[in-house]
Amino acid sequence: MSDADGADGGDDVRVGESDGTAESDAPRVAVFRPADERIDDATALLESLGVDPVADPMLAVEPTGAVPAEAPYVVLTSKTGVELAAEAGWKPGDSTLVAIGPATAEAARDAGWAVDLVPDEYTSAGLVEALAERVDGERVEVARSDHGSDVLLDGLRAAGASVNETVLYRLTRPEGAGESAELAAAGALDAAAFTSSLTVTHFLDAAAERGVRDAAIAGLNDAVVGAIGPPTARTAADHGVEASVVPADADFAALARAVVDALAADSTAAGASRGDASTDR
Question: What is the SS3 assignment for 149?
Fold first, then answer.
């Protein structure tokens, strides 16, 4: 099961485990995808980019058993929502089906559904912009997690729509999450890739439970912090964490590449600084 576009598994955190080989010198990048194929895919991508992934799931999916209600417009905001609805046997019928981004749209097509609209910007604000001139006087069903942004509901209602929200699943913090927070607090984390506002708050809650919240925030601010989109970056900023990387496309692959590029740029700048210092002697 997969998570939101621009949002959202549990390999053990790799902290120089003793297996007879030297500990990797590659930069450590924390990734917070849920404990399923998403964490596997994220880890594989980061490894292919030459960094050492620290897999620390910050989201667990708890299905509610609900399915989207019938409406002329149905909005789905994650791959997880698509897959849960499909598993329950739901079909869009004659509804205009709207997907928040390409990953959600691909999951819908894999389920055999036709996708009618994908916004140019893969966010709640992007959905509102794409639908604002279409939904005046229409009923719109928004099917998503229990942590969806009010921006979508308020924006559609302001555009004249009658909006119903169905919670398809709840997002919780897995027990044991937070080893990356301890690494950040110890100054042993080079970067973090946050895929939703909830991964930020869950990271900080886990850090607080371990008694390292302030140190973890300081550690993040000494590292490269990536946020999958502006809302996630704002949540981080509200908690004192500066996100230095926000990709143009709100998907994990773009986020991972942007974080790795920023690490490479920092390394190059540090090397140049050392070179300048040596010539001054």
Answer: coil
Nearest to 33 by CA among 211, 255, 262, 220: 255
Cβ atoms within 10 Å, residue 136: 10
Specify the higher pLDDT residue, 176 or 271.
176
What stretches of the chain show up as alpha helix (H) in DSSP? Answer: 37-48, 79-87, 102-110, 124-131, 150-158, 179-185, 197-209, 213-221, 230-238, 252-280
In contact, 99 and 86? CB cutoff 8 Å: no
Q: Which contacts (CB < 8 Å, 24+ apart) does range 42-45 have?
A: 42/193, 42/252, 42/256, 43/11, 45/252, 45/253, 45/256
CA gap 126, 119 in Å, rounded: 6
Instruction: Give burial (CB, 10 Å; 0-12/13-18/19+) of 274.
Output: exposed
Q: Give φ, ψ of 141 to 5 degrees.
A: -100, 125
Chain centroid to Cα 191, Å, comes to 15
Select from 230, 251, 248, 232 the least CA-distant residue to 102.
Answer: 251
For the stretch 90-146, pLDDT in tens is: 999 999 999 999 989 999 999 999 999 999 998 899 999 999 999 999 999 999 999
Q: Reduced to 3 states, what is the DSSP secondary structure of residue 279?
A: helix
pTM of the model as a whole: 0.78
- What digits encode the pLDDT tens for the residues 179-231? 999 999 999 999 999 999 999 999 999 999 999 999 999 999 999 999 999 98
Question: Both tokens of residue 70?
Answer: 């019938």
